[in-house]
């Protein structure tokens, strides 16, 4: 059986690897071809060494609480390459004015699980604190309609909690306005907290006590964030090597997809046509939708409804003596109410070991923008540099800057997203030989993408038969 996977980002690579592994374990045969339009694999996961600085141009870590990524790392036998965050810097900050305030111990995205550290923090006004601490008295919503994250936070914890805490925290994860994000699709755990405990704060306090009793720890669990000694591309490189060069075909832009005599015909920009029994598309929804207009128009229409945001990641290298701030944490987030372009900044050299030479600093800044917005790279870098100079008291010019734009890289799980994906999966059930995977569907994080790719690979693998059975 011929299987073609389009897109060699993490989703496509993992799908191909899992199918290959499935076949080896069960002594099945399949001809797998992984097509990538660019000259390199990995999608947004890209690592670069520059003058002994390790630059992550996409995600710089993954969370171990969701098991799929760690399980894949163990399968690939690269567990020895894993590193955790540096223990002495396991805290982060939120900007207010031009000053960075530590995130209080026990604060989880939008609400506190420990009251005293929260009360002592100057991050929120006394009025805002009182409103947040009244949250257990707010009755649960009886509405069944999908609610935005912004609406949920405002309803339960108040406007200041949204503007000063939840919005910057959520933007640091999704690069999007919480008013446009579906609670059910992005953070259903808070919906469950409201249903089960009638209060987010009560739920967080109960879970904190449980964790403390079970593991002897509490507060923000920065220890859950893992990376690799030589950067995140270690994972991509291991997948690529495991698959082998005969499976991956780069510089292969897919321009059209048709179906003839029960087989998929994949047309490339080079003029080459490939045939396949099974087709899996691991591309962002905006790239996938046009390819399916002819053969699966109902699927294409649903994919068109999935919105995307874009992001710029700018790495700055400095000498330590240029920075006035002690950088005694892993980074900070910026509330939109501060009216700055910057949404977050990581102190990469503090977050993980060996990201910068001794007595040097590596800052990783993030800027989000709409997919339609035109951005002048030079002007953006100058603007962000100016903001960092003010916030971190930086003197003189950086040793270097490295800016990368990822256009339409982050799917926006808007209101109704879960219903749209349910409709999509129902439509896909009519195509026994077509599969979609990636971060556009049921989770944007690295473990979520790997889990979804594994699920698709298993469903494809179940269609395969031993050679003797045809």
Count of discrete alpha- or pi-helical segments spanning 4 or more residues: 16
Rg from alpha-carbon coordinates: 23 Å
Q: How many E strands? A: 22
**What is the domain total for the residues?**
3
**Terminal residue distance:** 9 Å
Protein structure class = alpha+beta
Oligomer: single chain
Shape: globular
CATH level 1 class label of the largest domain: Alpha Beta
Largest sheet: 7 strands, mixed
Examine the secondary-structure arrangement and name the CATH architecture of the largest domain: 3-Layer(bba) Sandwich
> If strands are numbered along the chain, what order do they take across the biggest sheet?
8-7-18-19-20-17-21
CATH topology of the largest domain: FAD/NAD(P)-binding domain
Point out poorly predicted stretches: 214-220
| Mean pLDDT metric | 93
Say which CATH homologous superfamily of the largest domain is assigned. FAD/NAD(P)-binding domain
Proportion of residues in helical segments: 25-40%
Proportion in β-strands: 15-25%
Short description:
The protein has 16 helices and 22 strands. The chain is an alpha+beta fold.
Based on the model shown, name its key terms.
about 475 residues, alpha+beta, FAD/NAD(P)-binding domain, Polyamine Oxidase, Chain A, domain 2, protoporphyrinogen ix oxidase, domain 3, seven-stranded mixed sheet, five-stranded parallel sheet, 16 helices
Can you characterise this structure?
By secondary structure, the chain is an alpha+beta fold. It has 3 domains: 2-40 and 232-306 and 414-469, 3-Layer(bba) Sandwich (FAD/NAD(P)-binding domain), CATH 3.50.50.60; 47-89 and 308-412, Polyamine Oxidase, Chain A, domain 2 (Alpha-Beta Complex); 104-219, protoporphyrinogen ix oxidase, domain 3, CATH 1.10.3110.10. Helices cover 36% and strands 23% of the residues. The chain has 16 helices and 22 strands. The chain has helices spanning 10-26, 67-75, 115-120, 126-133, 149-157, 159-174, 183-186, 188-197, 200-215, 233-243, 285-291, 297-304, 348-351, 377-392, 417-428, 446-461; strands at residues 2-6, 31-35, 47-50, 53-56, 62-63, 82-84, 93-96, 99-102, 107-108, 111-112, 225-228, 248-249, 254-260, 263-268, 273-276, 278-281, 307-319, 331-333, 344-347, 360-370, 400-412, 434-436. It has a 7-stranded mixed β-sheet. A hairpin with a 4-residue loop joins strand 14 (263-268) and strand 15 (273-276). Helix 1 runs parallel beside helix 16 (446-461), helix 8 crosses helix 9 (200-215) and helix 12 packs antiparallel against helix 15. The chain is globular and about 70 Å long. The termini are close together.
């Amino acid at each position: 059986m011929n299987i073609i996977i389009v897109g060699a980002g993490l989703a496509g690579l993992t799908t191909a690897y899992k199918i290959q592994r499935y076949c080896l374990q069960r002594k099945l045969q399949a001809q797998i071809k992984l097509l990538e339009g660019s000259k390199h694999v990995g999608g947004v996961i890209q690592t670069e060494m520059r003058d002994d600085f390790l630059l992550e141009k996409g995600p710089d870590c993954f969370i171990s609480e969701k098991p799929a990524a760690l399980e894949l790392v163990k399968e690939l036998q690269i567990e020895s390459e894993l590193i955790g965050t540096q223990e002495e810097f396991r805290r982060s900050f939120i900007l207010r004015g031009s000053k960075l305030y530590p995130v209080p111990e026990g604060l989880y995205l939008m609400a506190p699980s420990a009251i005293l550290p929260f009360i002592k923090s100057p991050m929120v006004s006394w009025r805002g604190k009182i409103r947040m601490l009244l949250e257990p008295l707010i009755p649960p919503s009886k509405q069944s309609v999908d609610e935005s994250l912004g609406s949920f936070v405002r309803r339960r914890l108040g406007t200041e909690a949204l503007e000063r805490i939840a919005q910057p925290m959520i933007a640091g994860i999704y690069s999007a306005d919480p008013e446009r994000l579906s609670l059910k699709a992005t953070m259903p755990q808070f919906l469950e907290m409201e249903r089960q405990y009638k209060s987010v704060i009560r739920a967080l306090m109960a879970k904190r006590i449980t964790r403390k009793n079970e593991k002897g720890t509490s507060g923000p669990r920065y220890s859950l964030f893992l990376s690799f000694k030589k950067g995140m591309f270690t994972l991509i490189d291991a997948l690529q090597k495991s698959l082998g060069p005969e499976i991956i075909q780069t510089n292969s832009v897919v321009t059209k997809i048709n179906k003839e005599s029960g087989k998929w015909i994949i047309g490339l920009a080079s003029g080459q046509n490939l045939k396949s029994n099974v087709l899996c598309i691991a591309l962002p929804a905006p790239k996938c939708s046009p390819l399916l207009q002819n053969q699966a128009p109902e699927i294409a229409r649903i994919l068109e409804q999935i919105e995307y945001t874009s992001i710029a990641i700018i790495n700055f290298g400095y000498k330590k003596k240029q920075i006035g701030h002690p950088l005694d944490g892993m980074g900070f987030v910026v509330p939109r109410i501060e009216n700055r372009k910057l949404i977050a900044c990581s102190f990469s050299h503090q977050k993980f070991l060996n990201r910068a030479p001794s007595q040097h600093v590596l800052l990783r800044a993030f800027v989000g923008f709409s997919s339609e917005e035109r951005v002048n790279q030079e002007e953006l870098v100058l603007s962000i540099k100016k903001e960092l100079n003010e916030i971190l008291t930086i003197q003189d010019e950086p040793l270097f800057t490295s800016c990368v734009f990822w256009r339409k890289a982050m799917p926006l799980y808007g209101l109704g997203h879960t219903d749209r994906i349910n409709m999509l999966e129902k439509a896909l059930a009519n195509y026994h030989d077509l599969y979609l995977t990636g971060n556009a569907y049921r989770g944007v994080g690295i473990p979520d993408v790997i889990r979804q790719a594994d699920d698709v690979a298993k469903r494809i693998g179940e269609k395969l038969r031993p050679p003797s059975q045809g």
